[in-house]
Amino acid sequence: MDIxxxxxxxxxxxxxxxxxxDTRIRPLDAVDKTKQALIERGANAWLxxxxxxxxxxxxxxxxxxxxxxxxxxxxxxxxxF
Length: 81
Fold this sequence. Notes:
Blueprint: E1 3-7, E2 10-20, H1 33-50, E3 57-66, E4 73-77
Parallel strand pairs: 2-3
Antiparallel strand pairs: 1-2, 3-4
């Protein structure tokens, strides 16, 4: 996972994926079941380190589409899995 953040009391575990804007495969699709399991394992370790599992949390993915010479386009997928 790339980012751990707070949104009020909500703990966010965020994966960031970047692709060329003309790709036919969404960056979100790169977060397959294997990647999700790794992110979940990391989130569990983080919660254990905090000493609580009573925090509400969510898994998000940020998709970034790039094209040389253009401003990147960003799509925030909340509750991605």
